[in-house]
Amino acid sequence: MEVTGSTYFGDYVHGRIEGKGRYTLPTETKYNGTMKDGMFHGKGTLYFPNRSKYEGIWDCGISKEGKYTFADGLEFKDKKWHYCDGYDRRFYTEICSGLKPAGISQLTNLDPPRTIPQGCYDCGDGFYNPNTRVVIDYKLRFLRNADDDEHEWILHTCRKGWDEITGYKPKQ
User: Fold this and answer.
1) Containing H/E element for 148?
2) FRET pair for 73, CA 20 to 30 Å: which of 39, 96, 98, 111?
3) What's the chain's average pLDDT?
4) Could you give the CA distance from residue 154 to residue 128 in angstroms, rounded to a whole number?
5) Pairs from 23-29 (Cβ < 8 Å, separation ≥ 24)
6) Mind listing the pLDDT tens digit for each residue in 137-158?
C-alpha cells in the first residue's frame, strides 16, 4: 500500500486484507466496511472528500446495490428524481430552508457560495483555470488536467470567478 499511497486499518486473514476495516485512498476517499481478499465485500460505506457518501452492498469489489447521499443530505434516486428538473429548479438548500426574498439570488446550493479565484471557474469538484487547463480541489490541491471536451463544457456551463455584463447586445 505504500506504493499506491493508500492506508488500511483493520482485520487480516493469512496476511490478506479481510474482515472489517477502514481503507483510505490517496484521494482521501475512505471506505468503512467489510473486505474480502483485499476488495470491498459485504456492507460498506464510501466517504468522499466533498462530504458525500455511498452506502452499499459489495461483491468482490463491485457495488451490487446502494444509496448515494450528497454532502447537503440530498439522496440520489435513479427513478422518480424530482430535484432540479424542468418543473422545479430550486437548489436543495432552498427546498429545505425556503427561498430568499425577492431580489436576493442564491447562486449555488452552498450559501453563501465559494469565492472563485480570479480568472477561474467553479466546476463542481474544484476550481478550473482555463489558461493552465488544470482543475484543483477546493483546498487548492491538484486534481486533474482537463481534456478538450471538459474544457469546453466548463467554459459554457460553470460559474465564473468574475463579473460579466450579460443581456441585450446590439448588432454591429
Assistant:
1) helix 148-157
2) 39
3) 87
4) 8
5) none
6) 888 889 899 999 999 999 998 9
